[in-house]
Structure formats: C-alpha cells, structure tokens
Design brief:
This protein is mainly alpha-helical. It has a domain of 38 residues. 38% of the residues lie in helices and 4% in strands. It contains three helices and two strands; from the N terminus they run αααββ. It has a two-stranded antiparallel sheet with strand order 1-2. α1 crosses α2. It is elongated and about 70 Å long. It starts with a helix and ends in a 7-residue tail after the last strand. 1% of the residues are buried.
C-alpha cells in the first residue's frame, strides 16, 4: 500500500493542519520514502540486540551547584505588588 494524497489529506484534517497542494504532494512523497525505509529496517535481523541497547552511552551532564544564599526579606519585599503573611501574592496563571 502506498501513501496517497488522500491519506495525507485525511491525516491533515484529523490533525487540523491547513496544507497547500504543494505541501500535500511533498508530504505524500516524503512519507512514502519513510515507509520504504521502515520496510527495509523490518527485514534486518535484530534478534541479537537487546531491547534496551543504546547507540551511544548515556550520561548526565551536570554543572556544579553554587549556593548564593538567601536575599533579605526587607530587600525582596521593598516594593511588592501585594503580600500576605510574608509571602508574595501573584495572580493565578490558570483560570
């Protein structure tokens, strides 16, 4: 089964994407190439590769933390919009 223009139009409608005719043709071609690549990968024997194998070793890159201390309450609350019980009052982000 090849990926047709109608498949791309259907997927775009579901995803609510507004695509031009040129973009539809381009995506149909690109998705067809991707599908062919997936077929080629499915033919490879991967039985000796464990499911958790990584191409590159994983490691975290962490920087050293530095504690800068706390700011004095008088300095931080010098001109706050609103406070209550020593805490800043901010408008809600979600309605």
């Amino acid at each position: 089964m090849t990926i047709t223009r109608q498949h791309v139009v259907h997927a775009a409608r579901i995803a609510r994407l507004g695509l031009t005719d040129e973009e539809i043709d381009s995506l149909a071609s690109e998705l067809g190439h991707i599908r062919e690549a997936m077929r080629a990968l499915q033919q490879l024997d991967a039985s000796a590769i464990p499911p958790t194998a990584q191409v590159r070793p994983l490691h975290n890159i962490m920087r050293e933390g530095h504690y800068l201390g706390m700011l004095a309450r008088e300095r931080t609350s010098a001109k706050p919009a609103a406070t209550r019980d020593g805490q800043f009052l901010v408008p809600p982000v979600l309605e």
